[in-house]
Amino acid sequence: MSLETLRKINDAQTLRALTHPVRIALLEQLIVEGPMTATEVGKRIGESATTCSFHLRQLAKYGFVEEAGGGKGRARPWRMTSIGMQISEPSEDPEAALASFALVRLLRERQLDRLRTWLESRASYPEEWRRAADSSDFIFYLTAEELAALNQELAEFLLPRCQERLADPAKRPAGSVPVEVVVFTYPLALPGLPSAMTPAGGPLR
Question: How far apart are CA 126 and CA 123, in angstroms?
Fold first, then answer.
């Protein structure tokens, strides 16, 4: 998969359709586990088969999932139509911009919840996994153009490494497990704009 083949989402209707915790949970499970029926995925996310069937059909309507073949009714397996998507920043449509913000916020909150779960439960993991896991923070001085180039380089480096094993379980080494890598890049401060260095409640005291 290349950056050119990622599905780009920037219209308000599709963004709103995707902004639902159950639908995001379904996609997360299908990406990591592969094709599953509504009943199977429902057991993973704690939802009924009826609820999952409804939301899978809605996701199919917008082209995010499709039937994988075989089975009948709720026993039909579903799969992702693509492994990756790119939420494009709408530049002229205020409605799409609001929908994009809502979707990104939902996705990031779920990722941060998973990070909190890992931090709270890491003591129960084998030492080799505690040592292997990491979190890092770097501050760069960059222009907007340099930041865009950095993001491009990171994506081109990471995408091939995740796509191959997500798409083909046979290529996953023995003992491998799903590992999430989340990259945030954003300006800490710009003249005349709110600073990320200052809490939302006001200046530090």
Answer: 8
Q: What is the pLDDT of residue 1?
A: 42
Angle between helices 21-33 and 38-45 (to 10 degrees): 110
Q: Quick check: is 110 in a domain?
A: no
Range of the domain at 28: 1-96
Q: Side-chain half-sphere of 123: how many Cα atoms within 13 Å?
A: 1
**Six token digits for residue 160:** 């091939």
pLDDT digits (tens, 9 = 90+) for 145-166: 999 999 999 988 998 888 888 8
- The arithmetic mean of pLDDT across residues 82-110, rounded, is 87
Whether 7 and 77 share a structural domain: yes
Structural domain includes residue 109:
no
pTM of the model: 0.86
Predicted pLDDT at 118: 96
How many domains in the chain? 2
| E strand spans, 41-186 | 65-67, 78-80, 85-87
Question: Chain-wide mean pLDDT for the chain?
Answer: 89
The reply to whether 38 and 80 lie within a common domain is yes
Share above pLDDT 90 across residues of the chain, in percent, rounded to a whole number: 66
DSSP state of 115: H
Cβ atoms of 3 and 155 closer than 8 Å: yes
Name residue, tokens 């770097």. Answer: 138
167 Cβ partners below 8 Å, 6+ apart? 83
Other residues' Cβ atoms within 10 Å of the Cβ of residue 9 = 20
